[in-house]
Structure formats: structure tokens, C-alpha cells
Amino acid sequence: MIWCRFDDAGRPRYGLVEKDLVIPVDGDPFTSHRREPGEARPVDGLRWLPPVVPGTFFCAGMNYRGHAGQDPPTRPEVGYRANSALTGHLEPIVRPADYGEPLVAEGELVAVIGGIVPRRCSRAEAERAVLGWTIGNDVSARAWQRSDRTFWRCKNSDTFKPMGPYLVTRTDPLSATTTVRVDGAVKASFPTGGMLFGPYEFIRAMSRYITLRPGDVLWLGTGDTATMVPGQVVEISIDGLGALANPVTEERALLAMENNQGMSERPAYIHHVNFPTTDPERTIEWYAKVFGMKYIKPKSNTKVVLMTRGNFDLHFTPVEEMDRMAPYHFAVEVEDWHGFLAHLRELGIRHTRPITRPENNSMFCYIHDPDHTMIELVYHHRRQFPPPMEHDPAEKAREVLSR
């Protein structure tokens, strides 16, 4: 079975992947579930979440000879990572603003525990303990790894642990190949099963001291690495488990805002835009019910209709007729994509087919107001504000992920 976890109108939900559809379920992979085929939705357009949020996030370091170098470990030893660093398929990896070096991608096989593992378990019990497998990218900031006393930021910064896209059961990935690509080019490739200590050896060793529980994950190390910088797309693939892809962005603009530097000459936001209307009363009613905007009575004798929602304003100038050749168009960002589309359906307002931009996990579609002004509805998750780039990272990521 191929499981996934996705955002359903603001709440996490499990689903089963069947070809190009996701069948939502009531339940989860660890207890019981009931399929909801009437709610099936296309894979395109989903916001992917990590397939599991572990109770404990275990990780194996230096578990391949190519990565361990001349001083390989002599026994299975396990470490820990922070759940706060987890992020999903197609979500951005954000390089911290005060880190200027390339990041390092480490493609890893991840074992997902399906039940309580008995202490001092046998090999057979260790094998039965694994519910399934997924893919991880152990993003690392090597300069911090060398300078800091712990891995608190070099391995655990927010977004540094992409995982997904699927949880695949009833498969054996140990005979597979792990491949790391950057902008579509292969940068690392190694036998997935070529570990110094296999997953079941780790589980047996851990069970001597630790109780493993359903949902715990064990990241099993990497055989080779690749560097990546903002503007690139990194993809980890393991035969039979799919491909985990993430664009790389940076946080520099956010740091500038915190330091209040270099921002004085930039506008904080657009205050309002102005559009024509042939029927002010109809316009007031429509924008109130669709966007929750309020009419502001003007303090002067102007005939302009003033509407506000607090975080954005619209002004409408009465006209006798619309200029059909004018490209009237503006965009509104919505926070709850599925909820807002359901709101439109309740109002009987039609929208175009939603389109996904996978490089930044955004979606958009269009509606028209009564005067045929085109309104683009946009949804972004965890919007980042990278500095201007010479190339268009969105177009580049779209090209890479479509290969």
C-alpha cells in the first residue's frame, strides 16, 4: 500500500495513493482506517505533509562506508533529530539568513515503526516492527556542524528534514538504489542496502535500552552527498518509494526586516487598487459576500466606492460601461484553499480549474466579479521572501520536477 499525508482544508489527513488519485481515509496506518472514495482527489494540487510525525525521531550517522571514511563505527549507534525540522514533499528548504555557504543534501532510507517493539527483540520481531518505508533528506549546514558543539542548528533548523512523499508498505527497498539529483542532474548514487548496519540490526540494538512505538522513524544514513544553493531543486529518489523533491530558498529578506536594514526605500505594501464598476450597489454586495469586505462611507463628495477588509482595500469608480478591451485583473491570496473554494460553491460562483505550481507548493485559479473583472485566487503555504534572482526559480523548478 502507498500511504500519504496531506493538508485537507487546514487539517492533516491520511490518504491512499492510487495512480493519480489520493483516496482520503478515516483513520491512520497504525490502527485502523476506512476509505472515503467519494472524497477522492487528484494528486496534483495537494499540499504534501510528512507521511508521519514521529513520537521519536531516531537517526543513524556514518552508516555507509563511503560517508564514514577511515573511521567507521563498530556497532549501531543512534542519534536524534527535531520534529520541528520536518517538512513535506515540494515544501521549500530555507537556508537561514546568516548562513552563506551551500547546504548539503543527504538522501536517506527511513524505516517507519508500526507497533510497540518489545525490549531485547529478536531479528524476526525487528522485521515485523517495520510498517513501511519513506525517504528523507538530512539537510546539513557543514560550517555550523564544524563550529558548534551540538547539531542544534546545523541539522535541526526549520525545514532541514524533508520527508516523504509516501509511506510504502509491503516492499523491500534494501535492494534499491538511492539517487540524489540537483536541478535534474545526478550528483550522488549508491546502493540503498549497502549499509554498515541494516535497519533490523539497529532496531535490535536500540531495543536493549529503548522502547520503540508506532510512528517512530529511523533514518538510516547516507552513502554520498550533494551540495545545493538557493534557486536550485533537490530530489531524492529510491526505487519503489518515489521521489522527494524540494526547492531551496533563503531567509535573507526576513533578516533584513528584523534588523530594519535596507528596507526604508521599499514600500511596505500596496494600499489599494482602483477598478471601474457599472453598478456600485451590486459591487458592494458581491465583494461583501465573497471576500467579507466592508463598505466605507467616503468623507468627501467622491463617488468612488471604498471597500476594505483591513489587510487590503479596493476602490471602484462608477462608469457607464466597461471597456471590454482593458485587462482588469488583480490577485487575492487566500489562507484556506479548500475552504474558500467550498465558500464559492455555496455562493454559486464558478472558478477555473485550479493549477498547481509545485516549485513553491502554490495553487491558483480565477473568478470574475459581476463587471467581469478577473480575480486570481492564490494559495501559498509557508510563503518565503527570497531576494531577487537573475533567473526565475519558479520556472526552473517547474522544469526540473516535470522531467
Write structural notes for this entry.
By secondary structure, the protein is an alpha+beta fold. The chain folds into three domains: 1-48; 50-251, Fumarylacetoacetate hydrolase, domain 2 (Alpha-Beta Complex); 272-383, 2,3-Dihydroxybiphenyl 1,2-Dioxygenase, domain 1, CATH 3.10.180. It is built from eight helices and 27 strands. The longest helix has 12 residues, at 280-291. The radius of gyration is 25 Å and the shape is elongated.
The tally of helices reads 8
Q: What class would the helix/strand composition place it in?
A: alpha+beta
* CATH topology grouping of the largest domain: Fumarylacetoacetate hydrolase, domain 2
From the spread of the alpha carbons, the general shape counts as: elongated
Mean pLDDT across residues: 87
CATH-derived architecture of the largest domain: Alpha-Beta Complex
Tell me the total number of β-strands.
27
Task: Output the CATH class name of the largest domain.
Answer: Alpha Beta
Radius of gyration: 25 Å
